[in-house]
């Protein structure tokens, strides 16, 4: 698994789905200052990377959540990934909105799954975990059993790990922040001295640089 985590981190850096700027931080929509910017939607534009993501997510599901019989994607970032995975595994698919649609049927969950389905949730990026776990709660309230979540990437924030633990949701990802920063330093993308800055940010992203 370590080799897969490193390989995917290298691919994300190569296609600029991840950018690291410890000395010139980005500003997230939340207002947080961050040395990293992630846009996993870029993986969809590269057939080899897209195929890699699909195959690795399927591998995780088959090995870690073999009881799953349906797939749910978290809107909007994981709709495409989730659909690709469901197609590969031959499973029913739905996606979960961040909030109910404001017209028509007012759906929160789009698509039809078998009653009482054992669902594995597909996500593209885990930050604080809030939106991901809202999708889990929506599926549970609809009568489905969530067996776990798979994601392309996680920042590994302590508060996210605690939130998943409290929600009793097991999360398995293809790669993560720790492997990305290590690969970035190894390849010269960043300086070795930057690793300390990057580690400090992850400890408390909401207060970093304040």
Report what the structure shows.
With 210 residues, the protein is an alpha/beta fold. It has helices at residues 2-14, 47-64, 79-89, 130-141, 158-166, 177-186, 194-203; strands at 18-20, 26-27, 33-34, 36-38, 70-74, 93-96, 109-110, 118-126, 145-154, 171-176. A 6-stranded mixed β-sheet has the order 7-6-5-8-9-10, with helices on both faces. A two-stranded antiparallel ribbon has the order 1-4. A two-stranded antiparallel sheet has the order 2-3. Helix 5 links the parallel strand 9 and strand 10. The longest helix is centred in the N-terminal third of the chain and has 18 residues, at 47-64. The chain is globular. It starts with a helix and ends in a 7-residue tail after the last helix.
Q: Give the total of beta strands.
A: 10
- Give the helices and strands as they follow along the chain: HEEEEHEHEEEHEHEHH
Shape annotation: globular
Q: Low-confidence segments, ≥5 residues, pLDDT <50? A: none
Q: From the helix content, strand content and strand pairing, which structural class follows? A: alpha/beta
Number of helices: 7
Q: N-to-C terminal Cα separation, in Å?
A: 36 Å
Give a short account of the largest sheet.
Answer: 6 strands, mixed
Tell me, rounded to a whole number, the average pLDDT: 93
Q: In percent terms, what proportion of residues is strand?
A: 15-25%
> Order of strands side by side in the largest beta sheet?
7-6-5-8-9-10
Question: Mind telling me the C-alpha Rg?
Answer: 17 Å
Percent range of helical residues? 25-40%
């Amino acid at each position: 698994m370590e080799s897969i985590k490193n390989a995917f981190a290298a691919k994300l850096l190569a296609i600029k789905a991840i950018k690291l700027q410890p000395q010139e931080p980005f500003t997230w929509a939340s207002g947080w200052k961050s040395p990293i910017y992630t846009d996993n939607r870029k993986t969809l534009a590269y057939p080899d990377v897209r195929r890699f993501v699909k195959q690795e997510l399927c591998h995780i599901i088959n090995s870690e959540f073999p009881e799953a019989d349906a797939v749910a994607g978290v809107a909007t970032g994981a709709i495409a990934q989730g659909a690709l995975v469901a197609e590969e595994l031959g499973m029913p698919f739905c996606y979960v909105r961040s909030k109910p649609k404001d017209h028509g049927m007012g759906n929160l969950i789009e698509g039809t799954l078998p009653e009482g389905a054992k669902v594995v949730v597909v996500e593209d990026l885990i930050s604080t975990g809030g939106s991901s776990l809202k999708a889990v709660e929506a599926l549970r309230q609809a009568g489905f059993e969530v067996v776990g979540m798979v994601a392309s990437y996680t920042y590994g924030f302590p508060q996210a790990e605690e939130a998943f633990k409290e929600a009793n949701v097991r999360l398995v990802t293809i790669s993560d922040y720790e492997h990305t920063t290590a690969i970035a330093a190894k390849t010269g993308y960043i300086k070795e001295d930057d690793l300390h800055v990057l580690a400090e940010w992850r400890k408390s992203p909401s207060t970093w640089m304040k």
